[in-house]
């Protein structure tokens, strides 16, 4: 099935998938090319989310392939990794929307929720009738949110009352359910809650003037005497260690999106190099341009190799926190190089949105920062290889 491989998959990693998953991946690729790609630049320029695409995503049946559910066995971790790559290759914003919904929000409920809680929310989230968001980062707490979380929760009879704020919450303006983390005032432990849209005391406000992942609707969330039923506290979400169970898995997903962003930039740069003529011939015939393309492909290939191994380790439940951290930090750092070289290849034309590359260039910045900055992930790796903690 080599005819189904992406040309930029230079070592043919996709061929590690069984034939049925390769065919499913190609169907996703065709869906994204026909239904999503024509909408991408206009949505990005307007910083608006194309809500009419949600039913089409649901019909394409791409959500929840990482989970065993309702008689449908889960796909391989390698397949769901390539799924994130394909989404990000076309539009990192859409990859982030899907990743937040199915990886962070659904993932939190699947990992930390009881059987009853999973039955309550997951089926409609699978069908994309209920959209999820994930509320961890705070206005004054990003990298240090584990220690410095200011959002609080207090038990009051058969309810919990939340007070505080969250920031940079993807899907936050329109999500039907938001997984929210708050510090219990009684035991000082971080607990996990599901807050439903329309709950009194819960307000979501769009963050304006954002110039990366512009289609993603990031929000400031505030909770003021926000009362939710006790059954909305996820049963197994009782400490920050529980939060990390979710983040370890999703960091791998961000790494895959980082590969896709690189790959998308490389593909448009390669096509441009073959078409753009200067001095009477395609610029792709010049040594300096071929050097840029080879360096880009090297980054893509090295990053893809690392993420493939991440998925293989996930498949046997052997992925460690430090391995996930290294993959996320390495791939997104290489991503910044790749998209910069791609934009360089375009010259002045690289800053025009219709040529796509400036969108990948800008979006790579968000991937580089969220789900743990490079520096914080480096400290996780450094602690592992030295046995010494450099955290403050």
UniProtKB/TrEMBL annotation:
The keyword Flavoprotein applies. Residues 133-226 form the Acyl-CoA oxidase/dehydrogenase middle domain. GO terms for molecular function: acyl-CoA dehydrogenase activity; flavin adenine dinucleotide binding. It comes from the Bacteria. InterPro entries: ACX4-like, Acyl-CoA_DH_CS, Acyl-CoA_Oxase/DH_mid-dom, Acyl-CoA_Oxase/DH_mid-dom_sf, AcylCo_DH-like_C, AcylCo_DH/oxidase_C, AcylCoA_DH/ox_N, AcylCoA_DH/ox_N_sf. Its EC number is 1.3.99.7. Transmembrane segments: none annotated. Keywords: FAD, Flavoprotein, Oxidoreductase. One of its GO terms (biological process) is fatty acid beta-oxidation. PROSITE patterns: ACYL_COA_DH_2. Residues 241-385 form the Acyl-CoA dehydrogenase/oxidase C-terminal domain. The keyword Iron-sulfur does not apply. Its cofactor is FAD. Residues 21-128 form the Acyl-CoA dehydrogenase/oxidase N-terminal domain. It holds the Pfam family Acyl-CoA_dh_N. Belongs to the acyl-CoA dehydrogenase family. This is Glutaryl-CoA dehydrogenase.
